[in-house]
Inverse folding.
């Protein structure tokens, strides 16, 4: 029996009809096909105030960020689809990562229990011709710096406004297969790390 793997999948976009939410759903399907348990979440559901050290010092980690961190702690890895805002990742996504990295009881600022030793697969979709690839470079750098193993495979889907079928599939079959493959790869890597 193979080792159970739990992944958290989410988009860095807050938009209801986000292209990135569609992309991460495809990756999640790939991870499930590889035997992973995948929880699709929406970061908007966690009531994440802007990170503020004074707020944290006065009241501790707020309930929303703590709930998100607890989910991260219980997972073996992440599937993250991030749009590109002005050549980088969205502030909303960075804020979520910042809150989840905050130390709890028994942790130091560098413990990073919600991230260290976990695996991530990253992808993006954008109406522009580059597909969000510049934002992915920053996301990869941040996650890698937090001791997350980021899968080498990634995909930035360009011209996303016209990229999807009505059923959510990508019109470009090769892109669809590659996004599924990212999900499968993360599931396999997370399992290998747990079994090592």
């Amino acid at each position: 029996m193979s080792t159970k793997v739990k992944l958290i999948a989410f988009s860095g976009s807050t938009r209801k009809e986000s292209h990135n939410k569609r992309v991460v759903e495809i990756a999640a399907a790939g991870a499930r096909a590889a035997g992973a348990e995948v929880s699709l979440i929406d970061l908007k559901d966690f009531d994440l105030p802007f990170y503020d050290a004074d707020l944290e010092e006065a009241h501790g980690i707020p309930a929303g960020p703590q709930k998100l961190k607890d989910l991260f702690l219980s997972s073996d890895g992440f599937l993250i689809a991030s749009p590109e805002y002005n050549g980088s990742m969205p502030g909303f996504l960075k804020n979520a990562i910042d809150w989840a990295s905050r130390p709890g009881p028994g942790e130091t600022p560098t413990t990073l229990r919600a991230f260290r030793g976990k695996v991530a697969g990253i992808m993006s979709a954008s109406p522009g011709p580059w597909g969000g690839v510049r934002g992915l470079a920053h996301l990869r750098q941040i996650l890698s710096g937090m001791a997350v193993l980021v899968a080498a495979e990634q995909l930035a889907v360009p011209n996303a406004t016209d990229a999807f079928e009505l059923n959510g599939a990508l019109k470009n079959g090769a892109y669809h297969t590659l996004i599924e493959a990212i999900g499968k790869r993360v599931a396999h890597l997370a399992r290998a790390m747990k079994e090592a």
